[in-house]
């Protein structure tokens, strides 16, 4: 048994114990005395009703859900999976409406997600359903304030598909249960262990071969490879225009290199103790390494300015980018597709996590089965039963297919009982990448409150000429013990953590970027750590430690 599987096997009994503990914690719904006002949705007050005439069962859920068309409101920011003006333009949601007889009035924010979400939650005018990327930490806070409905009873009564998932995978319940013992949101789920890896290091392997190099194994190998990319003209145009390492943000580069020095850019666990990377003396070595790359123009000098996927794509497809840290489909797959017929030798390969000078080597960009992003139910809704049934539909076999593959006959066909994308989706001729084209059809199984279907990634890889799963190489570098689990804070803990971390994160981002770019010296890194202590990082870590030990069942 490899390291990752062994540690996951050890983790499951602990999570199961947590389920038992939180289930025994029952109690009130903690709505803080805030009476729920009816939402603006049309229709009558929710009542338990007999199945609609002519309905059919989808995993125990009867559809259509209602006899008369019902409108529900759902807030979601526009984001990477947003195309057009409304999610209802996606064929999957159109079909979902036909199947359930529920129309979703999407409320899309074009502002930055965090700010827009904060404004929504403080407005008092909440829709029926709310999407958030950070329910893992936010749901308990807003649940105890009375803004969200506790869902465990609704799940038991009206969500047979989701309830079966919880019964079949009991560790998931612990990952989404608040400190008070409530479930306030339904998450995106990944059930196949090989799909837990998210982003990973990717290298122009054709450049590596052309220059007679080997794929990098250590941080020093990375330095030497990037230096060769910069100085030896691997794109062959006679110009020194190569940008060896590109990124859209500092976080991605930190995920690549910080673990090689024994730390992370954020919170992590070290022998059972929660730590914050920038507050660890080893973090100085990370900054020194990245400063070395920046000073020698091996790290993109415009990484603070060129922060969109479009700018990164342009650098890759104009043959100047040598390496990056990104996703399998939207990065590796799309770049390969875009260069088909334009560059005969263009080739990308996945690189293992670099080993640091002290032997540290970990892959940190992986997720737990239950993600922090998903859908919560507002306490303002007048239709809790119908809302829960609509949410449960997302986890039915039919809903999973819609969310991952789109509509049969439009974006995919069933071949021997298996969904297979159409040629016009995997190889579009309209100027879009296959991922972009798929977003016309559906939202994507990894970005919604549903189950991510592993067959999606397999087919996109095959369409992009990848015969093997590049994520397989990371399973032996995943350490669940060092990964901070999706802890949830009590209201009191949140009151301490949120305001302190707002200032700390701003300070860290400004300071670390300045040191990487040479505007500030990293030689006396003790000053940064002293400043973090003065800003309250010690108090923050106390709350994280308490939440972590509560999660682990201690």
General description of the model:
With 554 residues, the protein is α+β, with helices and mostly antiparallel strands. It has helices at residues 3-23, 91-100, 113-123, 135-144, 152-158, 160-168, 170-176, 205-210, 219-231, 250-257, 283-295, 309-317, 328-338, 384-393, 397-405, 423-426, 434-441, 454-463, 491-516, 526-534, 537-551; strands at residues 56-58, 61-63, 70-77, 102-109, 129-132, 185-189, 200-204, 243-245, 267-270, 273-276, 321-326, 348-350, 370-377, 412-415, 418-421. The strands form 5 sheets. A 5-stranded mixed β-sheet has the order 4-3-5-13-6. A 4-stranded mixed β-sheet has the order 8-11-7-12. Helix 1 (3-23) crosses helix 7, helix 2 (91-100) runs antiparallel to helix 15 (397-405) and helix 19 crosses helix 21 (537-551). The radius of gyration is 24 Å and the shape is globular. It starts with a helix and ends with a helix. Mean pLDDT is 88; it is low at 1-47. Residues 1-24 form the signal peptide. Keywords: Cell membrane, Lipoprotein, Membrane, Palmitate, Signal. It holds the Pfam family SBP_bac_1. Residues 29-56 are annotated as: Disordered. Residues 29-43 have a biased composition (Low complexity).
